[in-house]
Each structure stands twice: as structure tokens, then as C-alpha cells.
Amino acid sequence: MRPNGSDSSILIVDDEEPLRRLLARLLERHGYTYGLAGDAQEARNQMKDHEYAVVMTDMNMPGDSGLDLIMELKTDYPNAATMMVTGMDDPSLANAALEIGAYGYIIKPFEANEILINVANALRRRTLELENRSHRSRLEQMVRDRTSELWNSVAQLEQIQKELRASQEETIQRLSIAAEFRDDETARHIQRMSHYCGTITKAMQESADRVDTMRVASQMHDVGKIGIPDSILRKPGALTRDERAVMQRHADIGHRILGGSKSELLLVASSIALTHHEKFDGTGYPRGLKRDEIALEGRVAAIADVFDALTSNRVYKRAVPLGAALEIMREGRAKHFDPELLDLFLGSIDEIVTLKADFADG
Ligand SMILES: [Fe+2]
Ligand SMILES: [Fe+2]
Predict the structure, then answer these.
(1) Rounded to the nearest whole angstrom, what is the distance from the C-alpha of residue 172 to the centroid of ligand 2?
(2) Could you tell me the pTM of the whole model?
(3) Residue 276: domain span
(4) What is the pLDDT of residues 131-145, one digit of tens each?
């Protein structure tokens, strides 16, 4: 029942001076320091000047009651343990006091030992609660620190990924435009065609990542035109059979340029380059593949590429009006185009038309 170090000062609040003195002497004899207050207001003043570990208060005093004081201290001084020392032997009052956070309830007249045991208990319980509280706040702080560290790393990682993706995409755009430069197709064709690919992929209920991959990868569909001589690529009139055969090599060339990479994006791009001129019924090039022998991404790209070719002006031809273009697309159902993908494309025609307007040739 010895006090715990220096942090065991006790405030005695009682309107009866003799009782205050009695308690003070008792506590002092057992090594405690103390302060005295004759009512709740004095107790408040004392609490401002001095840190008390325990406040033992009478119930009935002039001014605010002991219960009021305990309630107030609980909020303003949560580290102080409070006890009630009262002449009122009333279980409901005792209950109320304990309920609002008092650590003990002693009925007058009391035995000296009762006071000492209660004070020692209150101090012990207070120490445990303080430890508990600081442990908890240390833990909370730790969790906050770790969480914010984690969020920072995630944000950093996302930023790096975004930058990487952006630089990758820019490289791809520049490369694709370089290839198209030699042709009468424009940068706008690449943009429109690749967005259409994204729209169809979205309609296939694919993930946002896959949609993005398709949008970026399809930009490289004609990259192989880099390997086609100008005399054929830029020939104003119709191509001879041999010339057409050379021209058709752009699919294989693109496939070789983009292939063999570890990057998923380039692999998809390589597959699109190879298969975007294949037709569902097997009459396309370069391999004459049929149905699902043609990579899914190539079947998507074929729809997007042909639709944009139909609905854009080229040096040698005018754009076909939308209605007529859709008619031609429908005629290609299960011949040129995968019927299911064509249906998804036609089902997304509103979005396609919006994209067409957004990326119209300047
Ligand atoms: Fe092509
Ligand atoms: Fe194209």
C-alpha cells in the first residue's frame, strides 16, 4: 500500500474541515502527498495548479455535488482517478458514481485501512489504465505510420507505372505515325481505329487493363508498312498482283518487328499486326486463317480498321456515309468479321460515332 513513486498526490475534497484534516494526516503518514479543497470550485482551482493522481470527494457539499465533480474531472482530467467518500449509504448513488467512472465508493464512518486499500487500488488501476492507454496509442500511431507508408509506396508505384505507360504509349504513337506517314492514312486513323478497338473490348466485358492494352496495342497494326517500298506504298493507281503481294507483307513485317518481346502490350500488338487482315471465312491474308484460328485481338482490330477506312476520306476515295458503311459492315458478318464481335461493335455504335467525331480529321 505504498504510493507509486512521486505520481501519487491526492486531492481531498470535503466541506468538513476536521474530516479533511483526518484524511490528510492518514495519507501523509503513509507517504502520500495531498491537497485540500472545501468544495467543487476549489477542487477545480487546485487541479489547474497541480497534477493529482487521485481525487477523493465528498458527495454533499455547498455548490456542485461530488457526483458533478467526478463527471467533470472524467472529461477534463482523464488521467486522475476519482473516489467518493460519503455519509450516504445509498447503493443507487454508489452505482451512479461508479457508472460515471469513479474508482471507489467509501461510506463514512470509515476505517483507516479502508481508505488506504481503496487509494492503493485506485492508484494501481490508474497505472494499468495509463499503460494500457499509452500502449494503445502507440499501437494506433504505429498502424497510422505503417498505413501511410504503405499508401505512399502504392502512390509512388502507381505514379511510376503511369509514367512508364505514358512514355511507352508515346513511343508507340510516334513509331506508328512514322509508319503511317509514308501512307495516306493519318495519325487520326490510328487514334480512331485504336479507340474503336477499346470500345469493342469494353463491350466484351473485359477488364479496364485489357481495354487499355487493346487500345494502345492496336495503334501499331500497320507498323510493318515501314518495310514496304515507297513505289508501292505511295503508288497512286491500282496495284498489280505482285505489288499487292508485296503490300500484304506489311502484316508479317509488323509481326516480326513487334514479336518476341516480354511485354504483354507488344505481344498483343504483334498479334494484331499479323492478323488484322485475316477474314473470318478464311479468305484474308497473310495466312488465310479462319474463325478462332485468328487471334481474338486480330478479329477485333479487323472490324475497327475496316470501319474507319470506310468512313474516312482518303486521297483516292470519299468517305462512305455512316448508314451505308454499317450496311457494308453487316454484309461482312461471318464472312469478313467475327459475327459476335460485329454485334458488340454495332451495339456500341453510339460510342463509336462519338469517338469518330472526337477524332475527326482536322
Ligand atoms: Fe494493315
Ligand atoms: Fe489501318
Answers:
(1) 15
(2) 0.59
(3) 182-358
(4) 999 999 999 999 999
